[in-house]
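Comment thread on ticket #2218

A.B. wrote:
> Attaching the input chain for the structure job we discussed in standup.
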Amino acid sequence: MKNIIFLALCLCFTGMANAQGGRQRVIDTAGEIPLWPNGAPGSEGKTGPERVRIAETGDHVVTHINNPSIKPYIPAGGGSQRTALIIAPGGGHVELWIDHEGYHEAEYFRDRGIAAFVLKYRLAREPGSTYTVDGEELADIRRAIRYVRSHAREWGIDTSKIGVMGFSAGGEVAGLSAMRFENGNPDAGDPVERVSSRPNFQALIYPGGTARLDPVPGAPPIFLLGGYKDRPDISEGIARVYIKYKEAGIPAELHIYADQGHGFGMRPTNKGAVAGWPDRFLEWLKEIGD
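C.D. wrote:
> Ran it. Output below, let me know if you need it in another format.
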């Protein structure tokens, strides 16, 4: 009898642990929209599921993305002049830290009247990946911009107020989208491809690849933000990007927080000045007219 009770208790606790682990590893994918309904170019034959791990910080970290998507966060109520923001999380092009560099920001900006979209893009530096930053990753964010622009009426969005925000590696991808945008093809069979992929503004939060980020003719205004204690290519690199945009006559704003390193994103544990960075971004948007 004692053995039966002991076994039952073991099964009970094992079940509880498994259930808790299962809840931890589940991301609510309800409402996610594949960017290419019939599969993304370059991902042919790749049908494996996405994987999610839990970091020590409790963050959901996503890998094995073969079907890029956006998850909309649309403000309540009607509207036709909303600003839209496509958010690209970071993770070194190896993974996506999608909570503090994605979902948290999307909820915050949605609650302040901005239509936000969290982008899951393919990962160029994940082990075994066949994707590239300048190929599939850039294609994914371009497609996200076009998708939102082509569905602007549905979501009450002003097509001239669609921008990008990227963190770390996602900041590099967002910055590239503001350099290598394409006009729409009016003859395309896919209506999404008929509209422009140019973002109307860009917010790069401790972006990687700063040496690659140059202003080009028609580049949109830029908001740059990072930490003084970040690695030099970012903490010094964003200052160089600011200067390049200033010299090109393109509106630019730069914030560097003295006591911050890399990856602070938007967390409940953020304290002091850095906790207010989302409001600095909203103030900047208002100043540039978005």
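A.B. wrote:
> Thanks. Noting for the ticket: The chain has eight helices and eleven strands.
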